[in-house]
TrEMBL record:
Pfam families: SVIP, UPF0227. InterPro entries: AB_hydrolase_fold, ABHD10_acyl-thioesterase, SVIP, UPF0227/Esterase_YqiA. Keywords: Hydrolase, Lipoprotein, Myristate, Palmitate. The keyword Secreted does not apply. GO terms for molecular function: hydrolase activity, hydrolyzing O-glycosyl compounds. This is Serine aminopeptidase S33 domain-containing protein. It comes from the Eukaryota.
């Protein structure tokens, strides 16, 4: 995958932020639903997403260290493109799937001042140890002696394993806000690795794990949400066009926006004062029907209640699907 030209988003006068998606092993963008989610973010935020090819100089010579160099080069390139002065700081929102998730976390560990947020989809933590589980001791020894291992019809050099084992930790330590989505039915990268990562970061409140009843490809979660939110985007664009038409008729659009913003702020203040709402009413005085919590709304308290378990198949209300699935997480997470 070639890297595409990107426009920055979420910028301030002194900071520029851009999005980067790191693919899985063998350039597989389908793992963790990563490719679909990356494309959705691009559509949602009206930005391009950098998608560098981490298999440099080739898949045969792929290693974590070489992949990190690819991201280094991308950062230097974007620095020249987006930062007009030496005082401007450049940061990345890194989205990584499977192997790309591990590499994203490792790059964030090595470059803490260059990463804004991490969003990891079924990340391949415990990487070197996992390869020793994939292969028998005899197969590992054969790989070491021959220097090559056939994977997915291609040859992978032994230096890949040596590099991961000797030069990179099983669980990178990160300091930036980090949100992880991992399927409880993931048989390729078992969810225990993300739980271990969370345990090692138990003192950091900005590291959160969302567990979904899904596989390594997050098949159910991603496929439910993207069509729904694509319609949301289309509706938002149509609304913007209507506002433009009103503006041509002399309507003060900025005043309308300020009134709407004020209404939203008042509702937020009311929700803080009365989060449960009055009897028969929700926060902000909205009429509602009393009901118990649904199963997917329950938060299981494990290490400061940082693990959230969600079953996407129980999301009968499509507006709730937006909130409680991978794409919903990432949209809300990036906006904060």
């Amino acid at each position: 995958m070639a890297s595409s030209t990107t426009s920055a988003t979420l910028n301030s006068s002194s900071t520029q932020v851009f999005f980067t998606f790191l693919h899985g092993f063998t350039s597989d963008s389908s793992v963790g639903g990563g490719g679909k989610i990356a494309n959705f973010i691009a559509q949602m935020f009206k930005v391009d997403i950098e998608q560098p090819d981490l298999n440099q100089p080739s898949f045969n010579e792929f290693s974590v260290s070489n992949a990190l160099k690819v991201i280094d080069q991308l950062y230097v390139k974007k620095k020249k493109e987006l930062c007009s002065t030496s005082n401007t700081q450049l940061k990345m929102n890194l989205v990584g799937a499977s192997m790309g998730g591990y590499i994203a976390a490792r790059w964030a560990q090595l470059n803490p001042d260059k990463v804004n947020k991490l969003f990891l989809l079924c990340p391949a933590f415990n990487l070197a140890a996992r390869w020793q589980e994939f292969l028998t001791q005899e197969e590992m020894e054969k790989w070491r002696k021959s220097g090559k291992h056939s994977y997915d019809g291609r040859q992978l050099h032994y230096e890949f394993f040596e590099d991961a084992h000797k030069n990179h930790p099983l669980y990178p330590e990160v300091n930036c806000p980090t949100s992880i989505i991992h399927g409880t039915k993931d048989q390729i990268i078992p969810i225990v690795s993300s739980r271990k990562f969370l345990e090692l970061h138990k003192d950091k409140k900005n590291v959160v794990l969302h567990e979904v009843i899904d596989d390594h490809y997050l098949t159910q979660s991603v496929m439910q949400i993207i069509p729904v939110n694509s319609r949301r985007i289309a509706a938002a664009e149509a609304a913007e066009q209507r506002l433009q038409q009103m503006e041509t008729r002399g309507v003060d659009i900025e005043q309308l926006r300020r009134q709407q913003q004020k209404k939203v702020e008042m509702e937020r203040m009311e929700q803080k004062r009365n989060p449960l709402g009055a009897e028969g009413y929700g926060a902000g005085g909205l009429k509602c029907v009393s009901r118990p919590q649904w199963p997917y709304e329950l938060q299981i308290p494990v290490n400061s209640s940082k693990i959230h378990r969600i079953d996407p198949l129980r999301l009968s209300n499509r507006s709730l699907i937006y909130k409680h699935t991978p794409v919903g997480y990432i949209i809300n997470y990036i906006k904060i």
